[in-house]
Amino acid sequence: MPLTAISIQGYRSIPRLHFDVDACSIFIGANGVGKTNLYKALGLLRSAADGNLTRAIAQEGGIESVLWAGSRGSGPVRMVLEAQFEELKYEVEIGLPKSTEAAFEIEPLVKEERLTIRAGKRDVVMMERKGPLVTLRNEDGARESHRDAALPSETALAVFRDAARYPEIEIVRRELLEWRLYHDFRTDDASPIRQPCHAITTPTLSSDGHDLAAVLATLFVIREDTVDLAAAIEDAFPGAQLRAEDVGSWCKLEMQFPDMPRPFGAHELSDGTLKYLCLLGALMGYRLPSLIALNEPEASLHPALLPPLARLIAQAAQRTRIWIVTHSEALAAALYEETGKKARRVIKEDGATNIEGLMLSGEFRDDED
To answer: Where along the chain do its domains lie?
Structure first.
């Protein structure tokens, strides 16, 4: 069930944004306009599903760091995130503790949650949380009330895990947990990516890329069909060959370049080459996640690799949702050529992050042309 729309309110430089999501959503902008906050908001939504939302906020600097810093109304100070998946919609609100709540002084707390399903022309509430009270609609359509079942620092989405009794909650949680966000793969000498990894069938690259060799070996050994993989390597590194295999209980990868007498292991590859292989693993895995978000994928890459990268992204967008945040006009142009999707320009107006052409409906003005 693909992500179809997202709403962000009161998060860092974003007072309020709501927009539709395409098969390939591309965002470009200058430093400091807040485009990375769009990417980070996805990570917080995913954290709502794994039960670590408030911890993730703390790791970002705490609730005071993530709340919108501009002018506010007279109501409670809240950060609101919402994801829509066709007929299902999930919303979570985070705020500061009241003086009467048992919590640390500035601990981020889950104030409200809401999960609805579209039935005809109306939304049916399947889960609603207001403070300590969670109201659920079970598989029979009956309403249930649970008080204090979820701690203020926990999401009801992560706490209620009975798939048979609350199937809509399970669907949304699983969808969010499938998301993968990739940013700044480590390529230093001590990086796990440069080391062999356990020989375990690995259909999807982890967020830090430590299992890259296993992801690629899964394509070689399990799928036994690497035609597309070989073509992608040829596109980026003409004449080169990639090999990934299991050796005992470990997987390793190596590259053979046409002008070199021997293959090079992961520990010998350049930073740019290794990062490109990570992107290749993320976009060509045996099973792609329901959403792949790439933050500045062009970093550390030679400009000649941007057109092949755009082709990789375009191919992956036929299998799943892709979300790109980039500085690179060259990558945005290559993506437009390969996908027909225009990059949305992220701007800052009076200190607030906005997107050019975005209307209140969540659609973009040029989509109506």
So the answer is: 5-179+345-368, 186-288
